[in-house]
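So, does this match?
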Amino acid sequence: EIGAFKEARNWQIANDQLYKNVIFFDEFNDLTKWTNDANNDWAAESGAACAGRGCAANRACAAAGSEMQTSDIDLSDCAAGSGIANWTMTDTGTTEAIDCLNFSTSINSGSTWKKNNNSFCDDFTATIADGYEIPDSELVSTFRFKFVCVNFLDAGEATVVPMFNITCDDTKPPKINASLSNLSTDVMQGNYVNFTANFSDAVGVSW
């Protein structure tokens, strides 16, 4: 039930627009949306993903890289040119130019991956944002994303990712199952119309 629809003629479903959808979102209370590789170096700590000797788990990132990846994320309903992955990141300790956070994507459920991209290397002191404009060729139902930490081997060194999300404009029409009850021939005179609906996908409603 949405609001108090006293005038049935005045509400409508706004389905003639694109909807900005948050397809994936994580603030890392745990790592249930991610899978570690065999090194098992990533952990969820204090609302962030952390890897390296500076984390409470004290797991060093291998020189060859230690990764965590998502499961399949369905981007097949995203409008062309609208897919974006966003994240925030910081580091701890005295990191060097060889200490890096990289990322990569896959369009076939992780069977193959693109060449690693670099998000940062070396030392910085603030939490900063980065992002990746997802090419249209990657807007598929079997999209995956992974972070790769490299060389956080010394005491106190770590890479930290507090937030990650993927957004896009959704072109799929909203799915709406709705019914009206308690109809009256004169709904303008204080009678109520009961409107019940189940919505999937983002949808705007006005009345």
In short: The chain has no helices and 15 strands. Residues 1-18, 202-207 have pLDDT under 50 and may be disordered. The radius of gyration is 23 Å.
